[in-house]
Amino acid sequence: MEADCSRIINGLEVYCSNQRCQWRGDLRDISTHLNKGKRDGECQYEEAKCRYEECQVRNERRYLDYHEHDECSHRLFRCQYCWKDGTYLSITMGHYNDCADYPIHCPNNCTLNTMPRHVLSAHISHQCPLEPVDCVFRWAGCNDKPLRKDVHVHTADTKHVTLLAVACGQLKKEKKQIKKENSKIKEESTKLRIENQKRELEMTKQVETLKEENSQLKHYQAIP
Ligand SMILES: [Zn+2]
Ligand SMILES: [Zn+2]
Ligand SMILES: [Zn+2]
Ligand SMILES: [Zn+2]
Ligand SMILES: [Zn+2]
Asked: Could you say which residue ranges form the zinc fingers (TRAF-type) (predicted)?
């Protein structure tokens, strides 16, 4: 009797508890239809949580596909420049700041084009027309920093003639100084050489005297 009752009840035709859902079916099938508390299930009007563990977004299942695919900040995401994998949040908020292939503009705005981040330092130090560079006459005292594109015009500036004249004068003075120092060194080495020769001569004389004394001594010893 009881079994009959439950068969009758379970066989009752019911509507889905989510009002906008068009589902109608046996009472025994409604829990499968709703699959409460689970992300996946037949009823698209049942509220569920985003499938990514760290995301707390809840919505009707029919909206979750779009959220998980295009919106969720915890969705799987690949850097489109270097193909590194991560979540949307980790790639766009963290990785983009140091991705070597991320496209950036030259800080001098020399072009509208972008370049991969790893190319920038070579661009700045060898190519960028808007980068200030040292004047070729820096050694002569020009501290101007013309833009790389203007270097030739700057180099031709007549002010360098004055600078070069001063620098030449300085060099001449230094040359004279060096010459003076050189002749001093020569003088001193000649002095040293002469002294050495004197000393050698004295030594030879001493040796000669000693030799003579020796042979005289031998002579005396020979006489018994
Ligand atoms: Zn339903
Ligand atoms: Zn989410
Ligand atoms: Zn990257
Ligand atoms: Zn540039
Ligand atoms: Zn210069």
From this structure: 32-82, 95-142
Dist CA 193 CA 205 (whole Å): 18
CATH domain 2-74 topology:
Herpes Virus-1 (3.30.40)
Q: What is the ipTM of this complex?
A: 0.79
Q: What is the pLDDT of residues 20-59, one digit of tens each?
A: 999 999 999 999 999 999 999 999 999 999 999 999 999 9
Fill in the DSSP letter of residue 7: H
> Where does 67-158 have alpha helices with state H?
88-89, 120-122, 151-155
78 contact partners, CB below 8 Å, separation of at least 6: 84, 85, 86, 91
How much distance in Å is there from the Cα of 9 to the middle of ligand 2?
39
Sign of CA dihedral 85, 39, 62, 54: negative
